[in-house]
Amino acid sequence: MAKKFSQTFWVANSVELLERLAYYAVFVALTIYLSNVWGFSDGEAGIISGVFSALLYLLPTFAGAYADKIGFRSSIILAFSLLTVGYFGLSIVPTMLESSGLVNYGYGNGNDSIFSSFLVEKGRVEYNTQTVFNGLENSMLQWTIVPILLLIVVGGAFIKAVISGTIARETTSENRARGFSLFYMMINIGSFTGKAVVDPIRKALGDNGLVYLNYFSASMTFLALIAVYFFYKSVQTHGQGKSFSELWKALIKLCSNVRLFVLILIVSGFWIVYQQMYATMPKYVLRMIGEGASPAWYANINPLIVFIFVNIITSFMKKKQAIHSMVIGMLIIPVSALIMASGNLIRSGTVPGLHPVAFMMIVGIALQAIAECFISPRYLEYFSLQSPKGEEGLYLGFSQLHSFFSSLIAFISSGFLLEKFCPNPKLFTSQKAYEEATANAHYIWYVFVGIGLISSIALLIYSKVTNSMDKKLSK
Question: Residue 232 has what DSSP assignment?
């Protein structure tokens, strides 16, 4: 197999694995990191995470155009340089603030801890101490994280564009399907491995682990940078590609295509629910189960299920219309959110060896992964078929706009829902007040059940309307 692909192909795949490993190690814990280390409220953390994720889906097409101008090798070296500095900054800046005395990431005792002793009795924490914040909450110093995150956004945008472009240019019509299959496999391996390192570090070091975790990600991207510098042979693209003005016109043209734009908005409903795996789930399980919960491992159910079932489901549905496969996936998604909500209603001990919230969260995430298998591959197929002839590639560059919209809505709504139904325990000093505040924590998931149902119904209507339109046009 190695002989069928070029050295550049294998280098691109290898560094993609390292980049995904670094990204998911940080992203799965990003909202916790923003609140527990930087002192942001749930709402503020949701806004920052939402904008961060949304830009990562909007910018790659524009970054790809610039990469075509300056060459892939220069672009990928720039990308990994930015990522390394960015991830390093997420660790070094909090450490510098601690050294300056502006913030203390040490541990307090049971009386001055941000968690009260009743949380130990309820099993919410494993020890009667937790990180104490001094200086960052309600301070302008909090916002020094924004330029650091922007470095990661820009670097990530180049990676998304350049690596997939390299795979396309380093494969032929005979081995392209196999090449992209390997590429997708590397993404899933990186996703799984990156999340796997989070919980052990967090449990061993507490909130300090969330800081040190970024050193791990920085080392992965730095290793990728070295690999690219020595082994990546440039794909000659200087002066090629479309200008930013051409891409902007294409984006406006896509948004004016009612049929495609409505589809993007409907499918966004699926991704709004799906992204709660990163937006709501980590904080929710830690607050409802305790510090012994393993949210990153729960999230890892997704790439595992997708890896096992995506080809099976795609093959099973290949004779069905793409829109029908998408409808099935969309109908599954509200069921997954309803299952996630039910964990808070099941008595402890019902599921041997697992907290009910953890068990139902795992089942819900598994169902979301199955839904993804029905939707994602066929969505791109359907989108390409509905794009104007000769402009499929340009339109597909903006096909991920659903993730731009869904990231903003998913993370921002999650932040405010957490504040209302599952607030941070550090805000409470009594058992009764905290238990009253979190009694209806599962209501968060009912909101996403509603979004999933509305999206499912909308896609069913869309399917019937577009099929009717196509029949009339074919006559």
Answer: P
